[in-house]
Amino acid sequence: MAARKGGVSLPERPYSGGRSDGILSRVSTTISQSPIVFQGKRAACNTAFVAKKLLRSTGKAAWIAGTTFLILAVPLIIEMDREQQLNELELQQASLLGTPQK
């Protein structure tokens, strides 16, 4: 098997010396070994590497933001809700008992 970096390789066939490879095989080999294809593969690998790093750092940032929200914002929301309920209870009691007139 031929070892190539960054892709799947097929087992090499021994050269028979004749024209048994065919023109399609020769053209395919020529195209796959061209510098343009090499640069395209390199660009695709670099893009995948950057995307993987970006996704990983985005995941870390989301984790940090989520845990910070749970630690800081959720208790504040709960306390504000309690305060609102207490205010409503005081208003209800004042309406039942009647407000003192001045």
TrEMBL record:
Region of interest (Disordered), residue spans: 1-21
Matches recorded under Pfam families: Tom22
Location in the cell: Mitochondrion outer membrane
Protein name (Swiss-Prot/TrEMBL): Mitochondrial import receptor subunit TOM9-2 like
GO cellular component, one term: mitochondrial outer membrane
Keywords attached to this entry: Membrane, Mitochondrion, Mitochondrion outer membrane, Protein transport, Receptor, Translocation, Transmembrane, Transmembrane helix, Transport
PANTHER family: MITOCHONDRIAL IMPORT RECEPTOR SUBUNIT TOM9-2 (PTHR46867)
Entry similarity comment: Belongs to the Tom22 family.
Organism: Actinidia chinensis var. chinensis
Membrane topology: Single-pass membrane protein
Biological process per Gene Ontology, one example term: intracellular protein transport
Membrane-spanning ranges: 61-78
